[in-house]
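Protocol step 4 of 5: obtain the predicted structure for the target chain.
Materials: sequence only (see below). No template structures provided, no constraints applied. The aim of this step is simply to have a reference model before the mutagenesis design in step 5. Sequence pasted as it appears in the construct record:
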Amino acid sequence: MFLEYYKLAEQPFGVTPDSRFLYLGPKHREALASLVYGTESNRGFLALIAMPGMGKTSLLYHYLSYLRDKARTAFIFRTDCDSREFIRHLLIDLGIDVAGMDLPAMHDSLNRLLTEEMRAGRRFVLVIDEAQNLDEKVLESVRLLSNFETPWMKLMQIVLAGQPQLADRLASPSMAQLRQRVSMIIRIDPFTNQEVNAYIDHRLWVAGCDKPVLFTVGARKLIAEHSEGIPRNINNLCFNAMSLACALKRKAIDRDIVLDVIADLDLEPLREQKIVVQKPQQKPQVLSTSFSLTPKRKSVSGGWLPKLALISAVLLAVGLFFFNVDRVASRSSASPSNITAMAAAPPAATASAPVVVSEVSLMPQDAPSPKTEPISQEVRVQPGQTLYQISVEKFGRYDHNVLQELQILNPGLDNPNHIHSGQTIRVPAALANSTETQRAAQQAPNAASAEAGKQ
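Step 4 output (structure tokens):
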């Protein structure tokens, strides 16, 4: 899109490992020199390890291009396979028909090819890219390939190229034999800020750009910081910055454009936010003297049953209180009647009459205190006796009040008209005593008259 706008011959920041755009800075030149030296020294196994995006594949293509006229080479990049498929990919890359071959037959074909190359005076170099993905069994098969040798030289040179995970695989105890055969470990480190500037200028120059100041100093500094010196990141930032500047009709790419590109390439806002649910911490309960308005749930046995028992006790106490008040009132009403009865006695009485009157008048005073007097007494029903007869005999009357008191003292007395012989009935003791007192008061004048008649 921007090639015509910036007058470029081709895309300067492509994503393919084009060896023409390979920037051989100090680190890449050192890595390439180590590969060439290890191969010419017939060291057997070499390992090239670098972070993703550092240009390993581009460097390997450049290395293979250097060996084109000096050795027979094979390049394997499909590493998600088993041992049989790995050998099959190798022979296919060498141009050998593997149709109908089993694993031993493929090893024989490879051995014959290596012998032919040795007799022709050529080395054989196998380059395995993305070697960190190889299974341990496949790595063991690769190790066994190094056994193709003569007493004086190796028939095959093997380069294992991969990401830092390859170093972890080689360092594992199960890979000790392969690790011992790797004679050189070659690394490629990220670019410095100065190398980032040189990398951008190199790729623009290869693409035909005649304006090396297309990226301003501020833009280059931002690109170096956010790319972390990794060529693939530099390519992405530069490509998007040129595309945005072209859309805005800007000839120079400054810091603001790079900032917009960095914000567009930021993946953090697009990542799924993980919500961590924290477990509630149990805090110790603090006793407070303040009252809480929040209702608290209680168990059935600890809720209304105690309240019901308390209310029942209060009601019973109130009932007993009024009952005692009633009893005292009835006793108080009995005394005036006695005095009235005595006052109505005739004056012409015998000497014994004052004694009788004195006894009758002293009866209420000699009676027990209401506090020590029993509340009720028991009466056993005689054969043929009715509740009416008992009431008249004990109280001198049978009315609604008497019946109500009897039912209070005898909760099981549902039907007053049906009582049986031998049944025990509780009667109010105070009411019985009061009735007997009234009877005595009524009989006193009669007794006095009878004594007077005898005189």
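Step 4 remarks: Residues 304-343 form the longest helix (40 residues). The domain at 193-266 is CATH 1.10.8.60 (Helicase, Ruva Protein; domain 3).
Proceed to step 5.
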